[in-house]
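FAQ

Q: What does a record look like?
A: Structure on top, sequence underneath. For example:
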């Protein structure tokens, strides 16, 4: 039920953090993986690691803000592997600038990468999957898009809330074509963002998690594998919360 053997996945922001963990998780489940990142050297390094472990993958430079380039990179993956079965929109910026101090340029950049990039990913992959009559799209949102938090900037939160609405719209549009579209909303996951916090701040955040610990990137990757696999075939338009109980609903 959880095997992705014979499938191809396309992952944005795959050079580090959650994106790299997701790429590893998908490859471990048997998928061929196209890793993309604006830092192509980082994506290359993860791809080299996966190839050394016997997995089939490619790495490509991608700025998700540009739909033309997005479509070109996606088509490159299709040409290489024959089709793309799983699209993971993960690329994001995570600034924590105070809402009183956010420059217009920073607001626009966060929205362009986080929300516009996910929109382009859904649309590019959605057309391909719609025509094939099958496919899985997984969008990375955040608990910040569900409740107010001082840990992230309001522009980040707004972009992640937008991804939830985007997910539902594409899920409704693509359901008749056999394509599922879902979101994952993580919180307090070990990685670059959490590592940037000082120890006192980390202790405060951890104290607010009912399970009493931070999440692991591999747990997010496992959720992506579930949604991409046969096990998640009847799940669409949903938001899967991975937050240790910080938001219960």
């Amino acid at each position: 039920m959880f095997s992705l053997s014979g499938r191809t996945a396309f992952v944005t922001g795959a050079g580090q953090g959650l994106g790299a963990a997701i790429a590893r998780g998908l490859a471990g489940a048997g998928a061929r993986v196209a890793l993309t990142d604006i830092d192509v050297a980082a994506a290359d390094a993860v791809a080299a690691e996966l190839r050394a472990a016997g997995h089939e993958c490619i790495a490509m430079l991608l700025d998700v803000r540009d739909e033309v380039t997005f479509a070109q990179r996606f088509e490159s993956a299709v040409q290489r592997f024959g089709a793309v079965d799983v699209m993971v929109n993960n690329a994001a910026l995570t600034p924590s600038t105070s809402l009183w101090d956010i420059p217009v340029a920073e607001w626009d950049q966060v929205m362009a990468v986080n929300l516009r990039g996910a929109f382009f990913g859904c649309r590019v992959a959605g057309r391909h999957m719609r025509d094939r009559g099958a496919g899985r799209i997984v969008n990375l949102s955040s608990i910040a898009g569900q409740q107010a938090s001082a840990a992230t900037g309001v522009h980040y939160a707004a972009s992640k809330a937008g991804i939830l609405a985007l997910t539902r719209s594409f899920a409704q549009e693509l359901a008749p074509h056999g394509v599922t579209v879902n979101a994952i909303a993580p919180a307090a996951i070990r990685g670059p963002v959490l590592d940037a916090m000082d120890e006192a701040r980390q202790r405060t955040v951890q104290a607010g998690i009912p399970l009493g610990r931070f999440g692991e990137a591999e747990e997010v990757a496992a959720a992506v594998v579930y949604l991409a696999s046969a096990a998640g075939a009847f799940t669409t338009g949903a938001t899967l919360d991975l937050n240790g109980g910080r938001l219960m609903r």
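Q: Is there anything notable about this one?
A: The two ends are 27 Å apart (CA to CA).
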